[in-house]
């Protein structure tokens, strides 16, 4: 399988302040929700779009001082990865890993632009999505372990 990263764009960047009254020294559990969508062009099976999204929303049960929605779309040209194949699945995981640092930067910049303490998502060394864990492996102490 061979793929070429053709570019990235923002599909959605939104920030909303919630007037939530929190007690002093209250620790917030932000709990971002991630989602991913894979799209192909009908007339060009090699052209793939991977949309990686993050959503943070306040609820009555779990109030948050802000709502954030970010969706970035990466454009990729993929060869030798037939639809439904293991190669296609590996490509989707690799594309997600490639897009995640851009998503992290967008969230940090969006929150900083709102004049609040910037939200810095952690650096990930494994998959974001549970369905990727059986394919993704990483090295721990010199030996390869599935996540």
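Sequence proposed for the structure above (147 residues):
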């Amino acid at each position: 399988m061979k793929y070429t990263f053709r570019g990235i764009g923002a599909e959605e960047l939104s920030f909303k302040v919630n007037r939530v009254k929190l007690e002093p020294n209250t620790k917030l559990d932000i709990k971002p929700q991630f989602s991913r969508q894979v799209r192909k062009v009908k007339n060009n099976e090699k052209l793939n779009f991977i949309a990686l999204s993050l959503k943070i929303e306040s609820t009555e049960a779990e109030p948050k001082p802000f709502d954030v929605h970010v969706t970035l779309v990466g454009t990729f040209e993929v060869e030798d990865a037939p639809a439904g194949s293991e190669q296609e699945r590996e490509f989707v995981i690799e594309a997600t890993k490639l897009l995640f640092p851009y998503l992290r930067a967008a969230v940090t910049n969006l929150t900083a632009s709102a004049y609040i303490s910037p939200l810095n998502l952690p650096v990930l060394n494994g998959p974001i999505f549970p369905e990727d864990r059986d394919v993704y492996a990483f090295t721990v102490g010199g030996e390869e372990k599935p996540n």
